[in-house]
Structure formats: C-alpha cells, structure tokens
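Model: You mentioned two targets. I'll fold them one after the other.
Researcher: Yes, keep them separate.
Model: Target one:
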Amino acid sequence: MDASGGYLARIGRLIELQARLRRERRAIAAAALSVRIESLLRRWIGAQRPSRSLSA
C-alpha cells in the first residue's frame, strides 16, 4: 500500500471513530478528533501537490 492509501485508510478509521463518539454523545472527544482528521487531510493534500522546487 502506498503512503496515500495509508493516509486515507487512517483518516477513514478516525472518521468512523468520530461517528461512534458522536452517537455516544461525547462531543468534546469528537471535536478533538475532528482537529486530528483535518490535520491528516491537510498533510495528505500537501503530499499530493507537486514539489514547487522543481518548477523554479
């Protein structure tokens, strides 16, 4: 599995956990997990962009 697939699988598991926390009415934990998911998504998106140093 490439790094991209690894990130997406990890994000998917975190989203499932977040949904469970929301069902259990654990809003603070779900909100904290939301921050973690956003961070991972930003890192994954950044990894998908071509390096700018090559075009300079």
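Model: Target two:
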Amino acid sequence: MRLRFRITSGNVDYYRVLSTSVCTSPTFVNVSYEVKKSSDSKNDIILITEPGACCSLNIAAVSNNVSGKVQTYAVKRRETVPDLVSQPTIKINRMSVNIVWSSPIQPNGNIVEYTIKFWSTTNSFKYIRFICTDCRGSTECNHHGKQKTLNVTATSTVNFMGDDNGYNRTFQREQTTFNVTVERLPVNLNYFYTIYATTRQGNGSMYTASFKIKSDLVPSQNQDKGVIAGAVTGTFVCTTAVMLILFFICKQYRNKLKDCKVSTD
C-alpha cells in the first residue's frame, strides 16, 4: 500500500512513521507492519501489512533533521478474498450431522458472509448463508478500535428432506464460530459439503469434505432374539443326535439278546 502526502507549506525532506503506530487485523488482533520510503518520491510512504488491516499511523514531517508536529492518520490496506475457514469439525449422528467452523485465520478483510453448500448423490443442493448484519464498508476503520470477539455461536438447523433449498441466517461481525445442523439424512448415502467465507472483494478459498451415514446395528432386542433362536436350534439338533445314538445302541443291544437266545436253544 502506497501512502502519498501533500506538502502544504515549508520544506519537507521526508515523512517519518513513529513506532507508536499500530495496525489491526479484521479480527481485531494487532498485526505487524513495515514502512519503506519510496525511491521515486519523498512524499510517498510504502506500508506493508496484511490485506484488510486498519492502521493508525502517527506521522511527522522531517526537515533539516527536525521533526514537525505529529499527525495521526487512519488508513486501511485494500481487502482481498479470505483464506480457508479454520477448525472445521463434524459430528455424525444417527440421521443428522453437526458441522462447526471458525473464522479464517487470515480473513484479509471484513467477512460479510459465510456460505455452506450441502448435498448428496441423490438429493439437490442445500445452501445455508450467514450474512453479517453490522459489517461496515470495505474502506472503513473506525469500528476496529475496541471490538471484542463474542462468545456466542451463530447457529442454523436445516431439514435435508424439506422443500426449501436456501436458508439465510445472520451474524454480528464479532462472532467467529458457526454451527450448522442438517437433520433427516437418509442412511447409506454419501454426503458432501463446502464452506467458504466472503469479503466485499469476493469468495475465499473453499473447504470441501464428505462423509457417509451408515445404517445402525440391529437393535439389542432383535439381537437377543437371534441368539435365543440359535440356541433353540442348536438344542434341537443336539437332542435329535442323542436320540439317534440311543436308538442305534438299543437296536444293537436287542440284536445281541436275540443272538444269545438262539444259541441257548
């Protein structure tokens, strides 16, 4: 970012940025910056910092090695598209899924919207949008002063089998955690979803994931019946085998008695 100053009166050798200057990221965290003097103009200062960062610069004009009155300027580096959302997690339940994510570590500007697209191989897309209700313009910096992150999660619940394909929700610019629950998911299907953040410069990098909800195991009551049926079947087979063995033993015993009776006569 190049800053240009106009000489209003007197002779100025160059402009100096004091170390008391500070730059703040769109997530209200102090970020580093670097100042370089322009080689082609003494009235230009080149400021290097993160995209979207707001800077409060204390600048003094220098003439004959004497600094003039310090002036404070609020400037903002031009926004770009955001990075990937951070800390994406997923919790798969019996017929639903819970998707959670946080703001990008490098937002590169004011996040004005988050979009999650959810679909399966057999169903149409569902779009869930979180829209910022109090985000300022892309060039404004006065709201960066004393903001704090809200410990409140922006949430949304979606019926996957419902007729609506689009869901709009709102969030405040200090909110950094988001939670979406998608309900009524048929089992044994592959599901896919993408998440991306948006600044006024466009959509950021897209996070993509997939999962599958498998059918649950047979309920314990049915499993018990299966075990009992197997035991009964096994008992019947064993009883039949024992009876057959006893039958052959008795038959052989009777034959022996018959033979003995014949030889005695």
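Researcher: Noted. Anything on target two?
Model: The chain has one helix and 18 strands.
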